[in-house]
Amino acid sequence: MKSFEYCVALFDSVSSTLLAEKLLKKAEILHKVIPVPRHISSDCGVCIRFSPDLRGRVEQALTGRVEYREICAL
Q1: Burial category of 55 from C-beta neighbours within 10 Å (exposed 0-12, middle 13-18, buried 19 and up)
Q2: DSSP letters along 12-70, please?
Q3: pLDDT of the residue at 40
């Protein structure tokens, strides 16, 4: 089984990314806004990086509050 270094949440706009960042801060979930990795395609130039063990918490914090395109494990 492959171990992933981190996950990224991809969004369709910078405004969605910033709203997600605000929600994750409120939920006290450790994360970082980074440029979208080159090997991942996205309409938006930034994404949110977080630890794979936080994926469930991130999905819970964002679902129904901000639309995200997908979460990729890298």
Answers
A1: middle
A2: SSHHHHHHHHHHHHHTT---EEEEPPTTS--SSSEEEEE-GGGHHHHHHHHTTTS--SE
A3: 86
Q: Is 19 exposed, middle or buried (0-12, 13-18, 19+ CB in 10 A)?
A: middle
Structural domain spans, the chain:
7-73
**Number of residues that this document lists for the chain:** 74
Taking only the tens place, the pLDDT of each residue in 11-49 is 999 999 999 999 999 999 999 999 999 888 656 699 999
61 with 23: CB under 8 angstroms? yes
Distance CA 40, CA 65 (A): 24
CATH topology of domain 7-73: Alpha-Beta Plaits (3.30.70)
* Whole-angstrom distance, CA of residue 28 vs CA of residue 74: 22
